[in-house]
TrEMBL record:
NCBIfam families: Mop
S-adenosyl-L-methionine among keywords: no
Entry protein name: Transporter
Domain Mop residues, every copy: 2-67
Origin species: Phyllobacterium myrsinacearum
InterPro entries reported for this sequence: Mo/tungstate-bd_C_term_dom (IPR008995), Mop_domain (IPR004606), Transp-assoc_OB_typ1 (IPR005116)
Lineage, uppermost ranks: Bacteria, Pseudomonadati, Pseudomonadota, Alphaproteobacteria, Hyphomicrobiales
Length: 68
């Protein structure tokens, strides 16, 4: 895989929940879970299932930081 995004986190799919049109895919990245909302069509095309290796790719124009 080649991709220009630098923020790619390799992990393991721990859950795929399909809705009417959108799915939530949860990826465990070193003990932290990242959730992505993607289309059901994308889930099918990628053949995503629990236990698969996958990348969470983060593309954002900015990142905010907060503290209590």
């Amino acid at each position: 895989m080649k991709i220009s995004a630098r923020n790619r986190l390799k992990g393991t799919v721990v859950d795929v929940t399909k809705g009417a049109t959108t799915a939530h895919v949860r990826i465990d990245v070193g003990g932290s879970v990242v959730t992505a909302s993607i289309t059901n069509e994308a889930v099918d095309e990628l053949q995503l299932k629990v236990g698969d290796s996958a990348y969470a790719v983060v593309k954002a124009s900015d990142v905010m930081v907060a503290v209590d």
